Structure formats: C-alpha cells, structure tokens
UniProtKB/TrEMBL annotation, chain A:
<feature type="domain" description="4Fe-4S ferredoxin-type">
    <location>
        <begin position="106"/>
        <end position="135"/>
    </location>
</feature>
<feature type="domain" description="4Fe-4S ferredoxin-type">
    <location>
        <begin position="12"/>
        <end position="42"/>
    </location>
</feature>
<dbReference type="InterPro" id="IPR050954">
    <property type="entry name" value="ET_IronSulfur_Cluster-Binding"/>
</dbReference>
<dbReference type="GO" id="GO:0051539">
    <property type="term" value="F:4 iron, 4 sulfur cluster binding"/>
</dbReference>
<dbReference type="InterPro" id="IPR017896">
    <property type="entry name" value="4Fe4S_Fe-S-bd"/>
</dbReference>
<feature type="domain" description="4Fe-4S ferredoxin-type">
    <location>
        <begin position="73"/>
        <end position="105"/>
    </location>
</feature>
<dbReference type="Pfam" id="PF12800">
    <property type="entry name" value="Fer4_4"/>
</dbReference>
Automatic annotation (TrEMBL), chain B:
<protein>
    <submittedName>
        <fullName>Molybdopterin oxidoreductase family protein</fullName>
    </submittedName>
</protein>
<dbReference type="InterPro" id="IPR006963">
    <property type="entry name" value="Mopterin_OxRdtase_4Fe-4S_dom"/>
</dbReference>
<dbReference type="Pfam" id="PF01568">
    <property type="entry name" value="Molydop_binding"/>
</dbReference>
<feature type="region of interest" description="Disordered">
    <location>
        <begin position="911"/>
        <end position="937"/>
    </location>
</feature>
<dbReference type="GO" id="GO:0046872">
    <property type="term" value="F:metal ion binding"/>
</dbReference>
<feature type="compositionally biased region" description="Basic and acidic residues">
    <location>
        <begin position="927"/>
        <end position="937"/>
    </location>
</feature>
<dbReference type="InterPro" id="IPR006656">
    <property type="entry name" value="Mopterin_OxRdtase"/>
</dbReference>
From TrEMBL, chain C:
<dbReference type="Pfam" id="PF04976">
    <property type="entry name" value="DmsC"/>
</dbReference>
<dbReference type="GO" id="GO:0009389">
    <property type="term" value="F:dimethyl sulfoxide reductase activity"/>
</dbReference>
<dbReference type="GO" id="GO:0005886">
    <property type="term" value="C:plasma membrane"/>
</dbReference>
<keyword id="KW-0560">Oxidoreductase</keyword>
<dbReference type="GO" id="GO:0009390">
    <property type="term" value="C:dimethyl sulfoxide reductase complex"/>
</dbReference>
<feature type="transmembrane region" description="Helical">
    <location>
        <begin position="7"/>
        <end position="28"/>
    </location>
</feature>
<keyword id="KW-0472">Membrane</keyword>
Length: 248, 937, 290
C-alpha cells in the first residue's frame, strides 16, 4: 500500500487564495471540531488549561511579512494543511502501509489501525502537514474531510471539507484539480496558482493563489483630472456651485 | 491496490439544533449537531441571513466554551475578603433572597443607590426595562467605553451607524474603504463581503496604523498616525469639494446642506437652523427662490442661495461647509506630516474616490418615490462604500472624526444608494426619533422613562435641580453632553469617590471591571476592595452575574451564575440590536439546545425572579404573582407597545402576523422550526434611499419599526451641538460651569472638526502611541479559557515597528519597559514591519490574572500575557489647572483608550510580564490536564 | 531535528552491534565456545538493544510487527527485514560457533552482508529524506557504514583494520559536516519557495500559527548555537577517532582497548546527537526557525 498509485482518477484538493485570507483561523478550528468528532481518533490537547499547552491540528494559519524593494511591508496570512501531493513522500516511507493515497481521488490518508506512530511520514513531509497525536500515538493529517465530501447523510451542498464550508472570506476552494475544466482548475489558471516548495518534487495537488499586487494605486498624475479644482477661492467655488446647480 | 474500506457516509449526528451563536457580537446562525444528547459539532447555518453558513474560529470552538472548566456551578456568597476568591455555594433561593434584602430598601428609599450596568450582554432592551421598573437612573451597557462615538456620530449625522447597524452594498460596491477596523462587530459579514468584492476585483483601501486582518488583504494600506484620521478625512473632503467632485443633487435633496442657518450674532438663535412654525427646516427653493419647507412636494432646495431678512444674510449650511473645508489648513500638504501620509497619496485616494463615485456611477432599473412625492425612474448607484469602528472612535476626537467620515460619505452621495453604505432596520432612524435620557426618580416607583437616548440640547441633560449630575456615571452632563450609551467606565471610580453621590449596591453583568474592561485596572481593584473608616467597603454591596470564573467574580459579594449560550433563551430583537440585513428585517433567538448540568440560571431569567420578588412593575401580575416564569416566557409574552414584542416573527394568535400582532404562545416553537431566526425581506424598490423612500417608510411602519413615516434629512450640520455652544456662549437657563465653556464652544462644532489630544496626553515626553486590537479568533469572545482558542493566542507580545526595535536595540523575544504618564509595564516584544513607525500595539485581553478562568497559575496568559489597561487612566494626567479632566471624548464621554501615549526602553530579560498580581483563589478549581474529546463513540 | 535519546541510542548501538556482527560473520576474530558467546552476546546486546530502543520512539510499539509489510517501498521496512534476517542468520551461525565449535562460513558471510545491509538501510531511512538536506546526501550511508565498520573492528579487536577504518570514518565524518553545512542552502528550499511569496519581496516569518508549541516544533526544530556545535564536533571527533587511535597505537593492553572502545562509543553518541540536533528540517522555514 505504501507505493503510490500510478495515477488517480481525480485529484481532489484545495485552492487557497492568499489574496483574501484574512487570517481569522476559522478553518483551523472548524477542522479541529470536525476531525475531533469524526475520522479516527480525536485530535487531543495536552495541558489544555495550563502552561505549554499544545494539541493536534491538521490545519494551521501562518503569517509572513513580505518587504518589497519599494513600498510598505505586507502581511500575508498563510493557511497550511496537507497538500495531498501526487508524489507524496510521506506515503512511500511508511513501513506499515498505514499511509496511502487513494486511487479514486488522490486523497492521502492514514489508516490509523495500522499506524505504529514511527513519525517517519512526518519527517518526510516538507510542509509540516502531519502531526503525531500525543494521546493516541498515531499520525493525524488532513483527510480532505473524506467523511464529508461523499457523505450521504449530509445535504449535497455541505459535501465539502469543513474548512472550505466555514471560510468566511471565501479564501478556500475545493475541487478536482485533475480536471482542467473544474472551477478550481480555472481559478488556478486565471490567478497563477502555485506549488509550495516545487523543488521538493512532491507535486502538491493543493494550489496557492498569490496575493494580487498591493499598494499600486495609480500615481496622482493619472488621477489628477479627477481633482482638477473648480475654483481656487471659496467665492469662486460658490459661483461654480451656482452654475452647476443650474444644470442639474 | 487493496485500499482500506472506509465509511464515507458516517452518521453525522442524531439531531441538529439550530440556534444563535454568542461567541461574539456577530450573532451568526449555528447548527449544533447533537450526539447522545451532547454537543458534538457546531457549524454555520447556511440559511441564516448573517453568516450564510460560514462560521469563524470562535463559533466553531463553541463546544469548548460550553464545556469549559471555568463555568460557574452554583450561586456563590463571598466568605473571605473581597478579592480573595473565597466563596461558599448557596442555593438560588438564598441568593435571590440576599439580593432582595439588599435591593428592596434601596428601591423604597432611594433607587439611585443602585447602579446596574451590563457588559457584553445583548439583552439591553430587557435589562433596561428591568432597571426602569426598579426606578434607578443608573443603568447602561458598555457602549461608553466601546464605541459610542461611532454610534452617536452616525445617528446624529445620518440616523444610523456602522457597527452592525449598516453594511456596504457588497453586490455593487467597487471601492471599499475601511478606517480603524480590526476584527469587529459584524465580523463574518465583513469577511464575506471583502471576499466577495475582492473576487470581483473591487479595490479595498485599509486605513489603520496596523496592517493585520482586513488591512492585510487591503489592496492599499494607509498606515496612518493614530488619532489623525479626522484630519486625513477632512483633507479628502477639501480635495473633493475643491474639485467639485461632490453629489450636489444628493446634498440638496437629502441632507441639511441647503437648510438656512440663522445669522443673528450674539443672540440665542444664532447658528440654529431656520424653521417654520411647525419646526420644519427651511430651504430656498431654486425654482421659486422662496423660503420653503424642506419636505414641500416639488421643492428644489438650493445649496447656493442665501436669504435676506431683517438686514441680515442667512446662508445655507453648505456655504459654511465651503468656507470651512476649502480653507488651506485642510490641504493635503498641510496635513501630510501630521497624518504620516504623503500629500500625493492623500490626493490619489481622494481622486480614486471621486473617480469611482462619479465615473463608475451606475443605475439600477428600479423606480421609487421619494418623501416629497417625486417619482424617480432609476436608482443612481455610487459604488464607493466605507466602514469604520473603534480605531477612529476611541479617541478624544472620535465623535468629530466619525462625523467627518459620515460627511465624506454624504458629499460623495454614497449613503443608502446602490453600491454605497446602507442601513439595516430598525435604521434609518434619526436622533430625534430616539428617546431622550430620563432620570426622573421616585422612591418605590419606576423611572419616568428610558435611561439612555439622544439629547437635543441642554434641556435634555441629566442634571438634578441643583445642576449636579443625576447619574452616577455623569452621562449627559456638561462634561460629556451627548453620552448616549452612558459611561460604564466611570461608574466604579465615581461610586468610590462618592461623586456625584454614594451608592449602596453595584449590580453588574458580564463586565470584567477588575481586569480588562477597565482602564487603570489596579486602581479599580483598589476601589473595589477599599474600606471606609468604619471598616465597611466604600462600595458597600456588589452583585455580579457571569457564566465563567472571570477576574471580576472575586470582587463581588454575591454571584448569580449565568448559563452558557447553548443553555439559555435569548432574543436578538428589533427592539434592541437585531440581526437585520440591508435588504431585510430579521431577528433571532437562542434556546436551550442543552440543559445546564450545574445549578445555574440565565441571568435574564434570574432578573425575572428578582423583579417579581421586588414587585417591579412589568414583572408581577395584578395579583402580585410572578409575571414571567423565565426569560423565554418574557420573550413570548412581553409587549412593549400593543402588538409589539421582543420578536417580530410569527406574531398573532395564529402566528401569521409579522412585526405587529398579538402574542403567539407558540412563537418560540416557530422560531426553532425555522432555524432560530426570522427574516422579512424589504420589497424591491424600498431597499435603497430608505430615509427618503416613501415605500420603505410605509413598510417600516407596517413592521412596527416606527408608528408613522418619518423621513428626515441627513445632518451634516448637527444642530443640537450648536445648542450646547449657545449655552456655552451664555444663552439659556441651563448654563455650563465656567471651566467648561471654552471647551464646549470649541469641541461642539456643529460641522465636523479635528483636534489633537496629544498635548493632554503628554506626547512630548511620551511620543509613541500604544494601541490594542482583538484577534479575530478571540474578538469579543467572553474569556480565553477556551482550550482550542487559547492555543492560537495564549500570550500577547508587544509588536514594535522595525524602527523602534532598532533604536532600542531590541530583538524578537527581548523585553521592554513601556511607560505612560500613568503607569509602567514590562513585557516581551516582537518586530513587525507592516506597522506605523511610531506605533506599538498588542492583542487585547489575552492576559489573564492568575487563578481566574480555571487556568493553571503558570498558564502563559497569566505569566507572559499582559494588558495595556495598566497604562491607561480614566483621567488625563494633571495639567496644572487644579482639575482632572476625563480621558474621554468631551462630547460623548467615550473612553479615549486609543490616545494612549508611551515611551519604551529595553528591559532586562524577565520570566513574567509586569505588573504581576497575586493569584486569586479559583472558585471552580482548575481544568483537566489533557483533552481527548469525542462525544459519539 | 529533535535529538531523541531513543533514536540516538538506536542508531549508535545497532550500528556498532551490526558492525561487530559483520566482523564476527567473516570470522574475525576466529572465536568459538565461550569466547564466541561473549562476542556474540555483546554484538546482540548492542544490535537488539538498539532496535528495542527504537521502539521507544513509536507511538504504538505494540503494532511494530506491521513494519515488516512494506519492504517494497519503505526503507524502514527493509531495515526491519535486514535486521531480523541478520540476527536470525547470525544466531544460527553463532550457535554453530558457540555450541558446536563449527564455523558455517556461508551463514557467516551472508549474515555479515545482511548486517551491513541493516546499517545501510538504517542510513537510507535518513538519507532518503529530501526534507532534511543535511541528511539527503550520498555521503550519509558512507558515514553510517564507515562508522559501523570502524566500531565493529574496534569491538572485534581487529586493531590494524580498526586503525585504518577509524581514520576513514573520521575523514568521512569531517566531510559530512563540511558538506552538511552547505546542504540547506544548496537544497534550493527557502522562505521564498516555501511560501511562493519571494517574487513580492523578502519574506520573514511573522506570527506563528499558535503562540504555543506543537508536535512539529518539538520534533523538527532544534536550534543549537554554532559555537556550541563546533565544540561538540571537536569533542566527538576526539572521542570517536583520535583517542581510540592513540590508545590503539600504544603498546597493546586490554585496558587500553577497553578505554578505546568506551571513548569511541562516547564519541559516536556525541556525533549522533549532533547528527539529529544539527539537521534542519525544511518545515522549520515556515516557522522562521531551523
């Protein structure tokens, strides 16, 4: 099972829009809530009400400051979860076959009952997408809400990952990135979606849409006609006013 | 490949119960998934008008809140000294009896000796009704230190405000400009809106010294110097007026810009608006050239014409505006340095506003009829919208700054038009349609009317016959005449000082006054624990209600434990702060989706019991028996006016009436069936131009929002402010004390002005501004004891701009001492480049006191976390005139916590933030060590 | 990387144990009976002890047996097979020597090969990880093998071979450090590729996702000062190579050999601590740490 499928029928994944993510952590907690109650062992928390508190999360929002050569520094919120790579190194290193990539949709999953908690898959993942649950001793990772997206007990429109359903800014999109005609593929094409750490050769399925250029409002010269004075003095202004009102 | 077979369709829950979130003030609809009678998972309700299915981090973490170990378990009676945290659990009977024994004599002899203030609660329509029945004038919620400037400026200027009371027309706006907003009220709708317009390619401009959250995704970030927003706005007003890029039609038709101002120097009516014998404002009709009522059918109000009478020239408001704002003091060049924004950029932004408002104007093919009876074939859209909150309001110049922003909106013609900013019912509603403050106290009887309101002039101030303040918080006095939300932040210090008078019982709800809800935390703690010469506490009795073991619990004598939000009834009512949309009236309920496993009671239900025991009008039947069994009973059966109750949906005996209708005993069941909310859409054609749209006005009357149509003009010129100026000039019977005359004259300008408060805050010695923001995952959430959320924000570094890091030789993780005129803190620092170079900031209310919130005493919130509150005082530093001036807006009394000026220096590495406070004893013990949460097995 | 005692102990002692087994399998020293028992006992104690130690690193050690299933793709699984294979074959081989004074040469040679293969597979567990550029180098298996052989020779009392192998292992170790110090920079993975934001400007980690710690930080981020690591490198080289070398060239004495062995083990443990502690996992980039 640890060998990767030669190809998958679909490439389900997320498209994350760095231009609109406001860094609210809604996806983080929604994920925590769903996956604590659902797939596999709960996502545990240690020292929940004390010092050095920590817990298992399958999705975390980083933030980075980018300083352009020219202009103000920018702050970019950066959600990160499993990218469900086509060449998932976490799968092939697994000694027990617990980690696998699904043939039908490309989702990378951990079969927890086979996991020995050796941690090697987490070592092999460049993105920090896997966390060893400290209470259960098994590896936890984003399941792309495999127990939601096909779940017949959920209304059709809710069959999407919890993080996508909850994202207030609409910065997360879910779909088949193997299908060039899908909405997500089109979004990636339009906005120049990018791989994280392409040089690692993991071929991530999840794509990131770069922030649009910022602080690039046209120079005043271009906009100057919009502020051409109607008069220099208040008196002149009132006569302009009178004339303009006449035309109304 | 033999993949494991997994269950792709596991059962999600046994049942979904739909109610309203209360993790913050946003009031989203939530689906609470139940398994075996327990809360298993919480998600957003897709049908809900507020959040349409999305939910923020707080909302999703609700499960940790309803199971938090910090939940209080039973009524508590203090047995140790105040502040020790030593309590014994008592029964509700005993607790209510103690409260009755304390309150009965107060009501009988002098009701003003009860001060009843509620914090983050949103049942003010109910709590104020209770307080009114009790008869005390001393009631308010926390708006005074929250954002009253924003509310009052909005309502006085345009009959509605930002907060959650209005919203941009997200479907049409093309330029969205945010001032001073981090996470805020209406948080999910704003996130949804920003996402929506950015997907469309609309531009977002963020004006904020700090580039986080919404400002981080803004296309353009203006890292303004704190407190100068008003100046920046007036410079843009200057540019736009000078270029004639203003909506003259809009100004003439819908605002008081054409209304004539009486020119009668030295007389009592100088500067008031010219009115006819019915009090209607007068304009010059451009068609006839005659003096005409503003609402006369067919009138074309003239912005330019003057009116000669008795040898004097009376000019319209707009003339004054031109004179004032075309002045060179408002050129971009004149303000650039002070605002920290290059003049070129100010012009570019003003030009962009003009370009989008006028070049990208559009029309909706929708006819409508205005209040003058004129029919319009189309609705003109100006796709520029604004939003703003505390960043501009929590300054001593906040009221005028908020007014300036509304003026900017109005001259561009972008309020209540397609693509602009729109009100949500029950707004628009002009200040004159709101109540005025009432302070008529009669021992043993109800107050003579609602406590809070909108003064129209000195006559409406809450003063006793001897001119002293009638209210303990000195709201509606000469010090802060237009304090529409009261001044919760002054209650404890005034009660302690016995100024204006002593009180006997302080009764508070959801207000963490001994910690993050007070300025000068240490001082407040001392006031709460100080005793007089005879060994009695200076504030004799304190009753407090909270669901959690907050810092304030230790400082009360009697604790009434509240429920969590999933264990209670609530109504998010049109009488209060509903969940309406710009296109719909909507209200909602909470209902007990789980039953408490503790001996606790919803605070409002406790007030129903207490109200009955005290025989308060409205809380007992004619036979003296208890009128409302609990809050749910009140929500269904209370009528504020005949046919108008807390909930607008499913009224009438058969449940088919909307807005108005008799009581429906099954109303709550109908709400629950509908997902916990009710929506009534505003008909197409009525949903823009609402203040002037005859169809909307009629619809609003039908809904019971008001009793007769009340179209009005936007008040660019706020006449009530002029009335206060006139008093300061010596006119009228009610006169301000002399030391306030100059200030009133200067600050109460009826047209927006800007002034600095740097000098009062000793900016020369303390040159850096210190701000706070609430993180999105914590904003307005009640406490940080939430096991999931506290992992996101377990402590709060002080963020310093790169320049200040370098100048002070600081690196990430170093410690710095921050000193203000009032106090000193020592805290860890972190560098932030996307920050105004003279501003430092931190996340607010992450720091917790040791022993509170069921956290371990070594929790990072209690060791590294800190509050800026220690640096802020409710009074300004002495300025040598023998007086102590309040650290608040002189118009509304809004606490000016964003005026905080500090200096910093590197400190030795420390292990704990300073000042440190001794631990308080937790009345609930500590939480469990580890959590492996799973409800379904 | 977090220098977990379990993995340091495991790689050090299984390397030494299988190194010793390699020599024993080839018939060096040619011992039988009790002497053979003693040598094999030491070798098994180290190899098996190391393997047992590694299970302390597991979240669910009771399922360790499942690790044998994925030999086609997983180096860890291959290691398990090699280790068991080597231990079984060498066990039979040892039984011949101890109980029958018979050396079954083909078992010994095969066992020796499997012993080395075990060390190689162990090294490949680390080498394969592209995420840890300092390990993802051809020299890594050479280092594991050369150290294992040097230690094995030392334990096996093969002084002249040991002298040569110690020098080789020492040189390989130095080369590894030199190359390793450039590995992260040469890997092409940095803040710009990690975030894709490099085209806008220089990228800096701001607030971490959580204010507290997490599994990733505990497991992958271990920052040690450069000065500190240089000192430890010198110490480990001294203990691992220089001291044993000197002790071995001195006139032979059992005490000196024992001291050489002890010094070598201490040196290898130190080097192995550094192997983990100095290794930078690329995930640290997201946290602005290494």
């Amino acid at each position: 099972m640890t060998t990767l499928p030669a190809q998958t029928e679909k490439k389900l994944g997320l498209v994350i829009d760095l231009d609109t993510c406001v860094g609210c952590h809604a996806c983080v907690i929604s994920c925590k809530g769903w996956n604590t109650e659902n797939y596999g062992a709960p996502l545990s928390d240690q020292n929940a009400y004390g010092a050095d508190n920590s817990g298992t999360f399958l999705n975390r929002v980083h933030s980075f400051e980018v300083q352009p050569d020219d202009g103000a520094a920018q702050l970019i919120h950066f959600p990160k979860s499993c990218l469900h790579c086509e060449d998932a190194p976490c799968v092939t290193v697994c000694p027990t076959g617990a980690s696998y990539k699904r043939v039908e949709d490309g989702i990378v999953l951990v079969n927890e009952s086979n996991c020995i908690g050796c941690g090697l898959c987490a070592w092999a993942c460049p993105y920090g997408a896997r966390e060893l649950d400290q209470a259960e001793g098994v590896m936890k990772k984003c399941t792309l809400c495999v127990d939601r997206i096909y779940n017949e007990n959920l209304p059709e429109e809710d069959r999407q990952p919890a993080c996508v359903r909850t994202c207030p800014a609409g910065a997360r999109h879910f779909g088949d990135l193997g299908d060039a005609t899908s909405d997500v593929s089109k979004l990636v094409a339009e906005r120049g979606g990018m791989d994280l750490m392409p040089e690692q050769g993991t071929k991530p399925v999840n794509q990131y849409l770069p922030p649009r250029p910022k602080d690039d409002m046209p120079e005043f010269d271009v906009l100057a006609p919009f502020l051409a004075p109607v008069a220099e003095e208040p008196k002149g202004f009132l006569s302009w006013l009178d004339k303009t009102l006449e035309k109304l | 490949m033999n993949q494991p077979v997994i269950d792709l369709s596991p059962k999600v829950s046994d049942e979904v119960r739909k109610t309203t979130c209360y993790m913050c003030a946003c009031r989203c609809g939530i689906n609470v998934h139940m398994k075996e009678g327990k809360v298993a998972y919480i998600e957003g309700n897709k049908d809900h008008p507020v959040n349409q299915g999305v939910l923020c981090a707080k909302g999703s973490a609700g499960i940790m809140q309803v199971n938090a170990p910090s939940r209080l378990r039973a009524p508590l009676k203090r047995v140790g000294p105040r502040g020790s945290g030593e309590f014994e659990e008592i029964s509700w009977d005993e607790a209510l009896q103690i409260a009755t024994d304390w309150l009965e004599p107060v009501r009988r002899d002098n009701p003003e000796k009860l001060a009843f203030f509620t914090g983050r609660d949103q049942s003010q329509s109910f709590t104020s009704f209770w307080a009114q029945g009790f008869g005390t004038p001393n009631y308010a919620a926390h708006g005074g230190f929250c954002s009253v400037n924003m509310a009052a400026a909005g309502i006085y200027t345009m009959g509605g405000a930002f907060w959650e009371f209005g919203q941009p027309d997200w479907d049409h706006t093309k330029l969205f400009m945010l001032f001073g907003v981090a996470e805020d009220h209406d948080s999910n709708p704003i996130k949804m809106g920003i996402g929506k317009i950015k997907a469309r390619g609309a531009r977002v401009i963020g004006v904020n010294p700090i580039r986080t959250g919404y400002n981080a995704v803004a296309d353009d970030w203006v890292g303004i110097t704190p407190g100068t927003d008003g100046l920046f706005i007036l410079a843009m007003v200057h540019c736009l007026m000078k270029a004639g890029k203003i909506d003259l039609h809009y100004l003439a038709q819908y605002t008081n810009a054409p209304v004539l101002v009486i020119n009668n120097p030295g007389q009592a009516d100088h500067g008031l608006l010219m009115r006819d014998e019915h009090g209607k404002e007068l304009v010059v009709d451009r068609a006839t050239g005659k003096l005409t009522r503003f609402d006369q059918p067919g009138v074309k109000p003239d912005l330019a014409a003057t009116y000669e009478k008795d040898g004097r020239t009376h000019r319209p408001v707009f003339h004054q505006m031109a004179e004032m704002y075309l002045d060179d003091q408002y050129t971009p060049e004149a303000v650039a340095e002070r605002c920290g924004i290059p003049a070129k950029r100010i012009r570019a932004i003003a030009a962009e506003l003009a370009r989008v408002a006028f070049e990208e104007a559009f029309e909706l093919d929708q006819s409508w009829t205005d209040f003058r009876g004129e029919k319009h074939d189309k609705m003109i859209g100006r796709p520029v919208s604004f939003h703003s909150m505390r960043g501009i309001s929590a300054h001593a110049n906040g009221f005028q700054t908020c007014r300036a922003l509304h003026m900017l909106q109005i001259i561009l013609g972008t309020v209540e038009v397609p693509g602009g900013f729109r009100f949500k019912p029950p707004y628009p509603k002009p200040a004159t349609a709101h109540p005025k403050p009432h302070v008529g106290v009669t021992p043993g009887a109800a107050l003579n009317g609602p406590h809070l309101g909108f003064v129209q002039g000195p006559d409406d101030l809450a003063l006793k016959d001897d001119g002293t303040p009638a209210r303990i918080d000195k709201a509606f006095t000469w010090e802060n005449p237009m304090s529409s939300h009261g001044l919760m932040h002054m209650v404890i210090s005034n009660a302690y000082a016995g100024d204006p008078y002593k009180i006997d019982v302080l009764f508070m709800y959801m207000a963490n006054m001994s910690w993050n809800s007070s300025m000068n935390t240490r001082g407040v703690i001392d006031m709460l624990t100080d005793k007089d010469d005879s060994g009695n506490y200076v504030i004799p009795k304190i009753i407090y209600s909270d669901a959690y073991s907050s810092e304030m619990v230790a400082y009360a004598d009697l604790i009434l434990p509240d429920t969590t939000y999933l264990e209670r009834h609530d109504c998010i009512s049109l009488l209060d702060r509903p969940i309406c949309e710009a296109d719909a009236a909507a209200d909602a309920i909470r209902w007990p989706v789980i039953e408490p496993d503790r001996d606790v009671k919803g605070f409002q239900s406790a007030l129903c019991d207490l109200g009955a025991k005290l025989n308060l009008p409205g809380f007992v039947n004619e036979d003296g028996s208890q009128k409302y069994a609990d809050y749910g009973d009140y929500i269904v059966n209370h009528e504020r006016r005949p046919g108008i109750g807390p909930l607008a949906g499913w009224r009438g005996g058969d449940g088919t009436s909307v807005g108005r209708g008799e009581v429906n005993p099954n109303q709550l069941e109908k709400y629950i069936e509908n997902g916990g909310f009710f929506v009534e859409h505003i008909p197409a054609g009525s949903n823009y131009y609402k203040p002037w749209n005859a169809a909307y006005q009629d619809w609003a009357v039908g809904m019971g929002l008001y009793d007769k149509p009340m179209p009005y003009l936007f008040s660019l010129y706020v006449e009530p402010m002029r009335r206060f100026q006139l008093a300061a000039e010596g006119h009228g019977d009610r006169q301000p004390p002399d030391h306030l005359r100059a200030r009133i004259s200067e600050k109460m300008s009826p047209l927006p002005i800007w002034y600095s408060s740097e000098e009062e805050n000793k900016a020369e010695e303390f040159p850096i501004t210190a701000l706070t923001q609430r993180p999105m995952a914590m904003y307005h959430s009640w406490g940080s004891q939430n096991a999931w959320l506290r992992q996101l924000h377990g402590h709060n570094p002080l963020y310093l701009p790169t320049r200040l890091m370098r100048e002070n030789g600081l690196s990430d993780g170093d410690w710095a001492r921050v000193t203000s005129p009032h106090g000193e803190i020592t805290v860890p620092v972190l560098e932030m480049a996307a920050l105004n170079e003279n501003t430092i900031w931190t996340w607010n209310a992450i720091g917790k006191r040791k022993g509170a919130w069921a956290l371990e005493e070594n929790a990072p919130e209690a060791t590294r976390g800190f509050l800026l509150n220690h640096l802020i005082h409710e009074l300004l530093p002495p300025k040598g005139d023998g007086l102590r001036w309040a650290n608040s807006d002189p118009i509304t009394g809004q606490a000016a916590w964003f005026d905080l000026k500090v200096r910093i220096e590197k400190a030795a590495p420390a292990t704990e933030s300073q000042p440190g406070f001794a631990p308080i004893k937790s009345p609930v013990g500590h939480g469990p060590k580890d959590l492996t949460w799973k409800v379904g097995k | 990387m977090h220098p977990a005692p379990s993995v340091i102990f495991f790689t050090t002692f299984s390397g030494l144990g299988f190194g010793l087994l390699f020599f024993l399998g080839l018939g060096f020293p040619a011992v039988t009976g009790w002497m053979a028992f003693a040598f094999f006992a030491i070798a098994y104690a180290m190899a098996v002890g190391g393997l047992l130690a590694s299970t302390f690193h597991l979240g669910r050690p009771e399922r360790a047996i499942k690790a044998f299933t994925q030999w086609r793709s997983s180096w860890l699984s291959r290691e398990a097979w090699c280790a068991v294979g080597a231990l079984v074959l060498m066990g039979l081989y040892a039984a011949g020597l101890v109980f029958f004074q018979t050396r079954i040469a083909f078992l010994g040679v095969l066992g020796a090969v499997l012993s080395l293969a075990t060390v190689f597979t162990t090294s490949m567990i680390y080498t394969q990880l592209k995420t840890i550029p300092r390990w993802h180098m051809t020299i890594t298996p050479v280092k594991f093998l050369s150290l294992s052989l040097a230690g094995g020779a030392l334990f096996a009392g093969q002084v002249s071979v040991a002298l040569v192998l110690l020098v080789v292992a020492g040189l390989v170790q130095i080369f590894t450090w030199v190359e390793g110090d450039k590995a992260l920079a040469n890997s092409g993975t940095d803040m710009a590729t990690a975030t894709g934001l490099g085209t806008i400007g220089s990228v800096r980690a701001f607030e971490p996702p959580h204010t507290g710690t997490n599994y990733l930080l505990r497991e992958f981020v271990h920052e040690i000062g450069r000065k500190h690591s240089q000192k430890l490198r010198a110490i480990s080289l001294l203990l691992m190579v220089v001291v044993p070398f000197v002790l071995l060239v001195l006139p032979f004495s059992h005490i000196l050999v024992l001291l050489a062995v002890v010094s070598h083990v201490a040196g290898v443990l130190t080097a192995r601590w550094l192997f983990f502690a100095e290794a930078e996992h690329v995930v640290g980039i997201y946290y602005g740490k290494r």
